[in-house]
Amino acid sequence: MADSSDILTVLASQGVEFLLTAQGKVPLSAIDGKMICLFFSANWCRPCKSFTPQLAQLYDRLRKKLEIVFVSFDRDEKGFHDHLNSIPWLAVPFDANLNKRLSHRYHVHRIPSLVPLGTNGQSVEEDAVALIEDYGVDAFPFTRERREELKDLDNAKREGGNLQQLLAFEGPDYLVSTAYGKITIRSLSGKTIGLYFGAHWCPPCRSFTLQLTEAYNEIIASPTSNQDFEIIFVSTDRDNEEFGLHIGVMPWLSIPFRESKTRQDLCRIFDIKVIPALVVIGPDGKTVSTRGRTMISLYGANAFPFTESRRAELEAEVRKEVEGMPPEVKDPKHQHVLRLGMAKAFLCDFCRRQGRFWAFSCHVCDYDLHPTCVALDQII
Known about the structure:
Elements: H1 4-13, E1 19-21, E2 24-26, E3 35-41, H2 46-62, E4 66-72, H3 77-84, E5 90-91, H4 96-105, E6 113-116, H5 129-135, H6 144-159, H7 163-167, E7 174-177, E8 181-184, E9 192-198, H8 203-221, E10 229-235, H9 240-247, E11 253-254, H10 260-269, E12 277-281, E13 287-289, H11 292-299, H12 308-320, E14 328-329, E15 338-347, E16 354-362, E17 368-369
Parallel strand pairs: 3-4, 4-5, 9-10, 10-11
Antiparallel strand pairs: 1-2, 3-6, 7-8, 9-12, 12-13, 14-15, 15-16, 16-17
């Protein structure tokens, strides 16, 4: 816990004689006995407005041992008072020069910025905003040591081999399905699990859902894997209505939308920055692959069980497809030389069918042929 006398010395040295709330002046002694965080923010700042409700939830739970002091970056006093009326914590009186001095002292280069202060009035963490966005109230007391503890907990969940701990650490012990209702997490023990991160508002997700559904149905229809694979949808939809539209076309399980903390935790634990994403958990509960989306896009159902050894097998099979083929051909169906190369997807200009992996392509114009559609007797 911070020594309030040291914090008071820091504020007093910068000319602060009292603090403010929407109701009026508050003596500096109001922060006595609490940990102090300086919150640098502005009413005009969209990221600040986005972060403030999350900070308010944290403050409501911790206000007996935490005090937040707002340092305004507002353009004028009216903006400051508009801001003050919307926050539940204390504020330093509006003074542009004072705010610049405080931001310089605590190395604030962007807003929002939340600087926790230690017992000597110095910061214990340069900026706790990202820590709170990731961990919420669990981030308290916002120290570097706490950050490392939380990272270690994430690593333990990701690599610990315990699906129950990963999916139901603080939430209910079940998933939901439009076809079967509630399914217990423990019933998935020993299966390969795909964690599918996506949202209905995201066009690439809607496209990948169709592709994943085709692969999923083919995998579970296989007599060798039908009891060994399941997908769990981790929604990043904006509301329950979008979530309902999305799971309505999915044949697999989902984390309940109301379990926002579980969904947020999973996005953080697996460092999900882009959707759609597919993380694969092996039968032992440990992460097999974070590149499930790429494997499905390239190989479809053949990607199962998504291990590195399976990926190596598939890549070897792809290379084998063109063993012995020439690097260039002059095919009578086209006026230019065609060169062999890899292609994720293309339409053959001869048979008009989709192709992938390998194509003989023209580097002069947009013309592609399947290797099987090339007249190989016309080798250069």
